[in-house]
Write a structure and sequence with these properties.
Elements lengths: L1 H15 L1 H8 L8 H23 L4 H10 L1 H18 L3 H7 L1 H8 L1 H16 L5 H16 L1 H8 L11
């Protein structure tokens, strides 16, 4: 279960990397992997939850509800997964056309909150050694901060760096 959670956060972080790479360095080929990485992150999150439900709780709904109420890290993890559901469902080109790009993009900004909640889930889950959660927190924080650079450039009148198209 722990390794599935680790890979969920790793893939979620990797799905956030292509936009800053393009915006800050002009490297655009990772953009083609963003959707796939996001769907893999969602798949690992579902497997992480399924492992908890089946192997840890044996589908005992009463125990699961008690665990959810007692352990805030589980509730935060569940919230992160629930935020990923609309992203996975609307990840196709057909959904982009149906929703329109602007609305689709607003929905897909939920990934930022899901990533933050995923890190909080990990930090609260770990009891003693916070090194690994701290690395994830720093990486996700840096990726989110890097996404503000193009916005700041536009806001304060500097032209966007090569490759920035949003």
């Amino acid at each position: 279960m722990n390794r599935l959670g680790f890979w969920t956060l790793t893939l979620l972080g990797a799905s956030l990397l292509p936009t800053p790479l393009k915006a800050l360095l002009g490297i655009s080929w990772p953009m083609r992997l963003r959707r796939l990485l996001g769907l893999f992150a969602f798949s690992y999150a579902v497997l992480h939850l399924a492992t908890y439900l089946a192997l840890d709780q044996f589908f005992d709904l009463a125990e699961i509800w008690k665990d959810l109420a007692k352990r805030k890290f589980i509730a935060v993890g569940m919230a992160a997964l629930l935020l990923l559901v609309p992203l996975a469902v609307t990840s196709t080109d057909g959904w982009v056309r149906r929703l329109g790009y602007a609305r689709w993009k607003r929905i897909h900004r939920l990934v930022y909150l899901a990533a933050i909640l995923g890190v909080i889930h990990f930090v609260w889950r770990v009891k003693a050694d916070l090194r690994e959660p701290a690395i994830f927190a720093a990486a996700i924080g840096a990726l989110l901060l890097a996404r503000t650079v193009p916005w700041l450039r536009r806001r304060f009148g500097h032209p966007p760096s090569k490759g920035w198209s949003h």
